[in-house]
Amino acid sequence: MRMKNQGTGRAGLLLGAAGLLAACTVGPRYQPDRMAIPARFAEDGHAATPAEIARTTAEMKDWWHRFGDAELDRLVDRAIAGNYDLRIAGQRILAERALRDAQASAWYPQIDAGTVAGDSRYSINIDNWPIRPGNPANRPEASYLSYGVSASWQLDVFGRIRRSVEAQERAVEETVEDRRAVLMTMLSELAGDYMVLRDTQLRLQIAERNIRVAQDARDLAQRLYQQGVGTTLQVAQAQSELETQIAAREPLRTHIAQITHALDVLMGQMPGTSAAALEQPGPLPRVPDFPATVPSVVLANRPDIRRAERAYAEATARIGVAVAQLYPNFSIPLSFNPNASAMYQLFETGALSWQFFMMASLPLMHGGKLTAQVRAAQAAAEASRLAYRRTVLQAFREVEDAMAAWHDDVEHTEWLHRAALDSALASDRARRLYSAGLVGFLDVLTTERTALAAENAEAVARLERLQDAVALYTAIGAGWQGVPLTASALPVSLETQHALARAFQQ
Fold first, then answer.
1. Which residues form a coiled coil (predicted)?
2. CB-facing half-sphere around the CA of 336: CA atoms within 13 A
3. Residue from 488, 75, 482 nearest 260 by CA
4. Pick from 177, 187, 191: which is nearest to 478 by CA?
């Protein structure tokens, strides 16, 4: 009965000690900054219903599918698999995780083994040279053999190691959010470039049509001149207009080639690889439905907001690391080093040599350095909190701006479409009237240039509407939810480089 009580008392003592150690973690505990956000966006036309929010949440995982373009979907898949910025960001996550593991290793005993063997010679030309123990002849030469183990264990009584590991874990989470931000930026850039490619190809088709119209106008001016109705001035004007239209076509071809090169680099391949696949003009992607959302979705999905929040958590943990420096430090050093001059003596009792201590150190006077480090950590944490709030404000501004642009695009594009139709009709009528001799050639040039400008303006407006749709999806933090972190591995296996790695964690 007494032995049972003793065992129960020992267990209770161990549990109590463990609880005491856990309770001794110094420094502030992290509390998320509760920033007040509006219930709805100012630029949103109506309050989103739960069904609309659920639809948007599902669409956020692969928002590029909403544009209904199979070629864009193919490019996105290839970019996710091959983009180098994304792969670099994945390696940074691995690096931060390794640093986290390095910090956590301080919790465990640090053990090293070693051995030494060799010969040494001492000078005998010194007066009163003492007789060395174990060598009564005082020979100057001696053999030395030794082996041993040294160990140290840092007792994390006040949580310095725990706070360091916590801070490094938050740093890992920051790199995860960094990779998500890289992914979103890449998707936005890829989709934007693809929209520009299709728009430029459309404008190139417009330019080709305008060249044919200018050729017809030149031929008409020459025919009327030959019939004695026209003048050489009209022929020269028509020829100049044709050459101007031909010249305007070449920059568009250059731009198409450059955009194709940019898309190849985003996909992690040599520029020009996709030229054959993308050189064929395709229709502009369709504009998706407006994504209904609420402000809380932005807080939950924007990687920059999530990263800023993790940075604040890391900075808070760093305060605990600085505060722990003010408290006593406990450690247990241990060494075991037998030594002798002959191999058969090395394992005898007389050759044994060992040390075992319980060490404690208390900071007494450092000229205010330790308290200054605490103040610096506190200021850094407050700066991180303020940076989080600034990031939230900037994110909401981007969402509001993207919503405003999306809504304004609809009416803007519709008016430009009407203007393009009316300008084309006016140009056709001007050519008919000119062929009948009812208007001058200057009227033909004016209406043709107006029609060209209106058609190009409509194409640019349609591009802007597509780009604003991409910007809104990016602003609300869409795109990373359906893409898992890539499984990266070191190019060199540690197990093949270190024989003991198969038995111990180094």
1. 197-224
2. 9
3. 75
4. 187
- Give me the phi and psi of 108, to 5 degrees please: -105, 155
Query: What domains sit in the chain, N to C, each tagged with a CATH number?
Result: 24-109+157-326+392-502 (1.20.1600.10)
pTM for this predicted structure = 0.79
By CB atoms closer than 10 A (0-12, 13-18, 19+), residue 148 is middle
CA nearest to 463, candidates 422, 424, 412, 425: 412
Residue 369 has a CB neighbour count (10 Å cut-off) of: 10
Q: How many residues does the chain have?
A: 506
Structure-token match 């060249």, residue found: 211
Residues β-bridged to residue 354: 336
For 48, 202, 306, 318, the CA distances from 423, given in Å and listed in that order, are 40, 18, 50, 66
Cα angle at 357 between 355 and 359, to 5 degrees? 145
Residue type at position 170: R
Place of tokens 């009407």: 418
Q: Which tokens sit at 204?
A: 């190139």
Cα 188 to its chain centre, rounded Å, is 13
pLDDT by position in tens, the chain (length 506): 444 444 444 444 444 444 444 457 888 999 988 888 887 787 775 677 788 778 878 888 889 999 999 999 999 999 999 999 999 999 999 999 999 999 998 889 998 888 888 887 766 665 555 555 545 455 667 777 888 888 999 988 998 999 999 999 999 999 999 999 999 999 999 999 999 999 899 888 888 888 887 887 788 788 878 887 778 887 888 888 788 888 888 898 999 999 999 999 999 999 988 888 888 888 889 888 888 777 878 888 889 999 999 999 999 999 999 999 999 999 988 888 888 777 777 777 887 888 888 888 899 999 999 999 999 999 999 999 999 999 999 999 998 898 888 877 676 677 777 777 777 787 777 777 767 777 766 676 777 777 777 777 777 788 888 888 899 999 988 888 877 765 444 444 444 444 444 444 44
Residue 46 per-residue DSSP state: S
For 233, the enclosing helix (H) or strand (E) is: helix 232-266
Shortest CA distance to 469 belongs to which of 176, 77, 201, 194? 194
* CA 287 to chain centroid: 27
